[in-house]
Write a structure and sequence with these properties.
The chain contains nine helices and no strands. The model has no long low-confidence stretch (mean pLDDT about 85).
Length: about 180
């Protein structure tokens, strides 16, 4: 019995281990600055009560970080739109648990399918699922729907603009340059 317990302990330790990611400190620093900037702008515009809600919208800025700048602008615009549509749908449905469950399921299924079919870049479509789920809950605790949509829209916009400003411009591939000529 003791060897099995030791094996389980080793597996649990490996699961909880935080492995180093050499060379990723620049990416982490950019993501942190983008998220902090998004929270501060939402705080300044909409108030401190809503500032932390902007973290879900700031996930969008981490999308397709390794893509060239021009391609990234297009991707980020579509991600912003998908995020806002998802949040708007659940806010329109309201507190009906059956419709809300169905809508969140369809949002999750479609966002995962479309995201992975078109891009498959990290971090994945998690923010397209988490954002609407949180947006559906907020009106039940007294946050109005217009405040939720204001936070969603402002956080998308700020994170998209700030990540484009913070993201280093990479050279376009020879194929893109040839098409531009």
């Amino acid at each position: 019995m003791a060897p099995r317990l030791a094996a389980v302990n080793d597996q649990l330790s490996a699961l909880a281990e935080v492995k180093s990611a050499p060379g990723q400190w620049k990416t982490a620093l950019r993501s942190t600055a983008m998220t902090a900037g998004t929270v501060l702008v939402v705080w300044a515009v909409l108030g401190k009560e809503l500032a932390l809600l902007s973290i879900t919208g700031s996930f969008i800025g981490n999308t397709a970080a390794n893509r060239p700048w021009r391609a990234r602008m297009h991707i980020l615009a579509w991600m912003d739109l998908a995020y806002l549509v998802g949040c708007g749908i659940v806010l329109l449905i309201g507190e009906n648990p059956v419709l809300l469950t169905g809508a969140l399921t369809l949002i999750a299924m479609s966002s995962v399918l479309v995201y992975n079919a078109l891009m498959a870049d990290p971090p994945g479509p998690m923010f397209l699922i988490i954002g609407p789920a949180i947006a559906s809950y907020l009106p039940t605790i007294g946050v109005s729907s217009w405040q939720v949509m204001a936070v969603c829209a402002l956080s998308c916009l700020v994170s998209t603009v700030s990540t484009l400003l913070l993201h280093p411009r990479t050279k376009e591939s020879p194929e893109v340059v040839a098409v531009d000529k």
